[in-house]
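Honest question from a wet-lab person: if I give you the sequences of every part of a complex, can you actually get the arrangement of the whole thing, not just the pieces? Trying it with mine:
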Amino acid sequence: MKKVVKFGGSSLASAEQFKKVGDIIRADADRKYVVPSAPGKRFSEDTKVTDMLYNCYSVAESGKKFKDLLNKIQDRYNEIIQGLGLDLSLDNEFKTIEENFAKKAGKDYAASRGEYLNGIIMANYLGYEFIDAATVIFFDEEGNFNGEKTNEVLGERLANVERAVIPGFYGAMEDGTVKTFSRGGSDVTGSIVAKAVRADLYENWTDVSGFLVADPRIIDNPEVITTITYKELRELSYMGATVLHEDAIFPVRKEGIPINIKNTNAPEDEGTMIVEDTCRQPKYTITGIAGTKGFVAVNIEKDMMNAEIGFGRKVLSVFEDFGISFEHVPSGIDTMTVFVDQAEFQGKEQAILAGLHRACQPDSIDLEADLALIAVVGRGMKATRGTAGRIFSALAHANVNVKMIDQGSSELNIIIGVRNADFEAAIKAIYDIFVTVQL
Ligand code: ASP
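Yes, you can. This is the full assembly:
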């Protein structure tokens, strides 16, 4: 068996956390390829090393003195090295970084040093080979990830390496310039490595015991989702549930490699398994609930709209021309409503209304702002009667007025539009009816 294990920043924030990680890796000989993040926060007001690096580099870029800031970053690493009792010095590495910052080597180079240096420490601590991600993970000239080349080179490079540490978050462009993924991108690196070595499992170690059925800021101590499919995960992440970087599922998904979200601080917890599909019935009818506030409903009315072929296309092309993507388009006989992101829409509001009038001569357009969308997601809904009924009666009991309903034909989710002010109450009502009553 081969497992790729990725550890997030909070799992590697201090020597104490590193020791937990070391114990986890040593407890299972299959944990052969390790992808570390940069040291994260040790306590809630602390600063992540990645943010310290961005800050230090912006000072360097503006031509001001940055040595003190760089020293503070080196202190973070030295504390870890000393706490682990390692015979390792990063002095030469920091000298090179200082020179490169002075030469303005780029923001991505700067940020990537967090993972690079943590990788060196991790490899030294475990006695594993260190492989610089810049030599095995590639981006094209436009800065897009080059999956094909990466898979080939990384696969070959790791074919004869029994155990290795590959830092997360970055790679290099054709000309050698360091390039990072977007924030949280070490999750993506872990997935890329898992694909390249054809791992049996990609373990993603973080500081929570998996995906939760609902947002813990709204529900006290929500249940953990034990198994979730890639499709369900995508629906929930899209609506705001964040544990894993959105792009991290793509490399492993097509290879049938499951991802297991695990907690470094509670390694005995099962965590969440993310799989292509499963016969395991979910514990509750629904797998999870997620939602986002801040949408506008653009209601367009026109008599005899039903008979006007091409009306919908004309409406949507106006939004397209303004670079606005739409979320949902519920419609009636003579009405059509387009749900869009309020922040994106607001600045262009009047121009879009004028565009709609010109393009499709509606009788009237009205806007309803400050709406929230909630996704109730679950593969179990397909086989269960009355799910929608339970949701809406729970919302009615909680005095929540439903503004919009959308159930895709896949029956994987039901999307509900409510007022922003009703958002929390709605999520609580749905959670209670499916989870709390069954506990
Ligand atoms: N260290 C990077 C960040 O803070 C990448 C990561 O942790 O995945 O975004």
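Two things worth pointing out. The longest strand covers residues 288-301. Residues 107-126 form the longest helix (20 residues).
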